[in-house]
Amino acid sequence: MKLSLELTVATKPEWVVAVMANLPSFLRDHADCERKASALAMSLVAKYPDRLEIIPELIATGVEELEHFQQVYEVMRERGIPLAKEIGKDPYITALMKLLHSDSLRRFLDRLLLASIIECRGAERFRLVSEALDDDKGLQQFYHDLWVSEARHGHIFVGMALEYFEKDRVYSRLTELNEAEGRIVDGLELRAALH
């Protein structure tokens, strides 16, 4: 059973140029994204305490995302880059949240599937950053390792959805959301940020 997805729109090469031109801003945003990813996993535990089959995996994912935050913070500390004072609005995430259904059951499915898509987009972009960091082998390896981890998280969330919903329903909605995510990515302003 396929748990991964192919993104419908590839990140533009100009995005990598923007990131490489302002790596400190990218690292700050990346740290914020890891904090938010950890919080998302834990919010799913709090919101759906009756979904016992997925709680251990959600907790493990939340812990792993927090460890990623710690790792990014260490990179920033070594380079003298402070954390952002405030976590700014992420136009990508804001647009994705507008796709969520309002009724509780379909919203639960959407939250899992959007988490999968967000992780897959993160994996794609970490791969691009890793490939662009020829002159910094340590940071290159760091982003390579994160790419692998984020790709795995994308699979985890689809697997969680399949615990509770029919396969056809999961993949039909995943296709819809994935196509919408591609349109969102295509319309985003390029900036030194993960999204």
UniProtKB/TrEMBL annotation:
From which organism does this entry originate? Answer: marine metagenome
Q: Name one Pfam family in it.
A: MiaE
Gene Ontology biological process terms in this record: tRNA modification
- What Gene3D superfamilies does the annotation carry? 1.20.1260.10
InterPro entries this protein is in? Ferritin-like, Ferritin-like_SF, tRNA-Hydrxlase_MiaE
Signal peptide annotation? none
Supply the name of the protein.
Answer: tRNA-(Ms[2]io[6]A)-hydroxylase
Q: Which GO terms describe its molecular function?
A: tRNA 2-(methylsulfanyl)-N(6)-isopentenyladenosine(37) hydroxylase activity
* PANTHER family assigned: TRNA 2-(METHYLSULFANYL)-N(6)-ISOPENTENYLADENOSINE(37) HYDROXYLASE (PTHR42637:SF1), TRNA-(MS[2]IO[6]A)-HYDROXYLASE (PTHR42637)
